């Protein structure tokens, strides 16, 4: 018996399976694009978070990115070593570290945003611009709803 589809139809009927698999494709594409800079996806996430939100306390940055605090320290160490971020005492609470983008970090983040955009365009080439916008809108709604639920329940 021949099976025209490579994957089991039962899995192809599950949005969670499809979303997870598409995410792996997108991550792989972006990771390959960033590899030439010897950076991983969490490094890009840190830079993007700081570019979007400005300077943040380390614990707040970890929370907003959904990263383990101890893992974040390792990512920050590497980014600081490369002069892309700086850490300073938080003036609002001297017990905390606040993370900022350096001038080099701002320049590299702009470059990485372009790389990310091109890698995502390549992996979604099968979809029209309108379909991409719809996909992004629907995925964002699911993520925002989950964030709201987790915030309301304290998770």
UniProtKB/TrEMBL annotation:
<feature type="domain" description="HTH marR-type">
    <location>
        <begin position="1"/>
        <end position="144"/>
    </location>
</feature>
<dbReference type="InterPro" id="IPR036390">
    <property type="entry name" value="WH_DNA-bd_sf"/>
</dbReference>
<protein>
    <submittedName>
        <fullName>DNA-binding MarR family transcriptional regulator</fullName>
    </submittedName>
</protein>
<keyword id="KW-0238">DNA-binding</keyword>
<dbReference type="InterPro" id="IPR039422">
    <property type="entry name" value="MarR/SlyA-like"/>
</dbReference>
<dbReference type="InterPro" id="IPR000835">
    <property type="entry name" value="HTH_MarR-typ"/>
</dbReference>
<dbReference type="GO" id="GO:0006950">
    <property type="term" value="P:response to stress"/>
</dbReference>
<dbReference type="GO" id="GO:0003677">
    <property type="term" value="F:DNA binding"/>
</dbReference>
<dbReference type="InterPro" id="IPR036388">
    <property type="entry name" value="WH-like_DNA-bd_sf"/>
</dbReference>
<dbReference type="Pfam" id="PF01047">
    <property type="entry name" value="MarR"/>
</dbReference>
<dbReference type="GO" id="GO:0003700">
    <property type="term" value="F:DNA-binding transcription factor activity"/>
</dbReference>
């Amino acid at each position: 018996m021949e099976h025209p589809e490579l994957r089991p139809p039962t899995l192809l009927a599950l949005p969670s399976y499809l979303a997870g698999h598409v995410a792996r494709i997108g991550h792989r594409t972006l990771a390959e694009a960033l590899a030439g800079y010897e950076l991983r996806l969490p490094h890009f996430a840190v830079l993007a978070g700081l570019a979007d939100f400005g300077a943040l306390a380390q614990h707040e940055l970890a929370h907003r990115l959904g990263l383990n605090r101890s893992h974040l320290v390792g990512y920050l160490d590497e980014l600081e070593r490369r002069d892309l971020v700086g850490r300073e005492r938080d003036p609002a609470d001297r017990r905390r570290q606040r993370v900022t983008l350096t001038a080099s970090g701002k320049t590299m983040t702009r470059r990485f945003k372009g790389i990310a955009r091109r890698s995502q365009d390549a992996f979604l080439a099968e979809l029209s611009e309108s379909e991409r916008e719809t996909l992004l809108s629907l995925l964002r709604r699911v993520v925002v709803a989950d964030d709201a639920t987790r915030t309301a329940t304290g998770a």
